[in-house]
Amino acid sequence: MAKVYVAGHRGMVGGAILRRLEARRADGAPLDLVTRTHAELDLTDQHAVRAFFRDERPDVVILAAARVGGIHANNSFPADFIYENLMIEANVIHQAWAAGVRRLLQLGSSCIYPREAPQPMPEEALLTGPLEPTNEPYAIAKIAGIKLCESYNRQHGVDYRSVMPTNLYGPGDNFHPENSHVLPALIRRFHEAVREGRDEVVIWGSGTPRREFLHVDDMAEASLFVLDLAPEVYAANTRPMQSHINVGTGEDISIAELARLVAEITGFRGAIRHDRTRPDGTMRKLMDVSRLAEMGWRARITLRDGIAETYKWFLDNAEEVRA
Ligand SMILES: NC(=O)C1=CN([C@@H]2O[C@H](COP(=O)(O)OP(=O)(O)OC[C@H]3O[C@@H](n4cnc5c(N)ncnc54)[C@H](OP(=O)(O)O)[C@@H]3O)[C@@H](O)[C@H]2O)C=CC1
Ligand SMILES: C[C@H]1O[C@H](OP(=O)(O)OP(=O)(O)OC[C@H]2O[C@@H](n3cnc4c(=O)[nH]c(N)nc43)[C@H](O)[C@@H]2O)[C@@H](O)[C@@H](O)C1=O
Q1: 138 belongs to the catalytic site
Q2: Residue 68 beta carbon below 6 angstroms from any ligand 1 atom
Q3: If you take atom 36 of ligand 2, which residue's CA is the nearest one?
Q4: Which of 3, 149, 178, 250 could form a disulfide with 160 if both were Cys (CB 3.0 to 4.6 A apart)?
Q5: Which one of the ligands is nearest to 84 CA?
Q6: Could you list the residue ranges forming a coiled coil in this record (predicted)?
């Protein structure tokens, strides 16, 4: 029986990973799933994290807990984003090692790559140039997470892996009007415009930046795919100090095109206006997903289907939508 701790199980990604593990358990996989809410265990608290690992002694850890937000949240709360994410990663990775955890998977982000990285961005682009200023503190914390895993692997011989997702969306997302990512923000804004009979919706920036969007169920599947790889397969496809793996669809879309797609799905027929006082952020960050594709994993959910399903989830879960 493997004891698996999913950190951040009430978040969008942790929730999707937990649902997938519960399905495996229902199919007969011998899994003991351990979770703690943020209120039960603050992962920035070193003493609490040490006590948790000492008591629970999981075999495997999936680290999907983090301080997460869109361009405005990252720009407004840089101290929170760097401090909380560094603390969570350092506490979880170190105490996991101290408690004898052999395998761990942590989630980073595509913003670890330089602002002017070649497109699509290969794993090797890490630390080759300056980062995008709107999310540099968060990106530095995420890079530290990769380097923590690599360092514990080298010094202590454990098997700690990192996946770098592109922009994610799906059921359980954060729909806050200011602090969320673009896709949930637009779903909510277009929905409210239709409901209130408005003839105009404002979106941030020029509309020309391009983003790649991956549905969270695909992300959960990719996370477990990478976690399940035999150590020799993972090692053969990575390098000791370059051990992260990109996860995405390999396709991107401009923010203006995305807005038109969300308008169509939500039934909005009015005008779309751009607020150019808001930042664009990185102009493009398309993932090179060839490494994961060569190992046998590809995204399955199309953007149109994924947005339609997420919009339905938003309508069905109005009460519990995080905003
Ligand atoms: N969403 C996206 O577009 C992307 C996400 N990622 C990465 O994927 C991972 C998961 O993100 P996502 O699911 O979207 O984020 P969410 O905000 O949906 O979930 C994060 C979870 O972490 C928990 N958490 C935050 N701080 C603490 C803490 N100090 N102690 C304990 N729990 C804590 C949150 O609990 P609570 O809500 O109670 O604070 C929440 O349940 C993160 O590492 C993120 O960086 C990477 C690329 C894109
Ligand atoms: C996942 C990723 O997420 C963040 O980076 P980002 O990709 O820039 O994220 P975003 O989703 O907030 O914006 C994408 C684009 O969309 C435009 N945009 C239009 N209208 C709205 C809008 O209403 N809300 C938001 N948030 N953006 C909007 C916005 O101006 C920008 O051009 C970082 O946290 C980063 O660290 C990170 O990892």
Answers
A1: yes
A2: yes
A3: 135
A4: 149
A5: 1
A6: none
Strand locations in the chain (E): 2-7, 31-34, 60-63, 103-107, 159-165, 167-169, 200-204, 210-211, 213-215, 244-247, 253-254, 271-275
Q: Which residues contact 198 (CB under 8 A, 6 or more apart)?
A: 192, 270
Q: What is the pLDDT of residues 64-98, one digit of tens each?
A: 999 999 999 999 999 999 999 999 999 999 999 99
Residue 280 among known ligand-binding residues: yes
**Cα gap 203→72, rounded to integer Å:** 13
10 annotated as ligand-binding: yes
Considering every ligand atom, which ligand is closest to the CA of 281?
2
Quick check: CB of 65 below 6 Å from ligand 1? yes
Strands 253-254 and 210-211 come out as antiparallel
ipTM over 0.85: yes
> Which is the catalytic residue, given 138, 152, 169, 234?
138
Q: Is pTM, for the whole model, over 0.95?
A: yes
Confirm whether residue 108 is marked as ligand binding.
Answer: yes
Q: What is the pLDDT of residues 200-245, one digit of tens each?
A: 999 999 999 999 999 999 999 999 999 999 999 999 999 888 899 9
Helix 136-156, helix 78-98: angle, nearest 10? 10
The whole-angstrom separation of Cα 54 and Cα 116 is 43
Confirm if 53 and 99 have CB atoms less than 8 A apart: yes
CATH for the stretch 2-173+212-250+286-301: 3.40.50.720
For 26-42, what is each residue's pLDDT tens digit? Answer: 999 999 999 999 999 99
Q: Whose CA is nearest to atom 25 of ligand 1?
A: 66
SS3 297: coil
Tokens of 58: 């999981």
Q: In the 8-state DSSP scheme, what is residue 99?
A: T
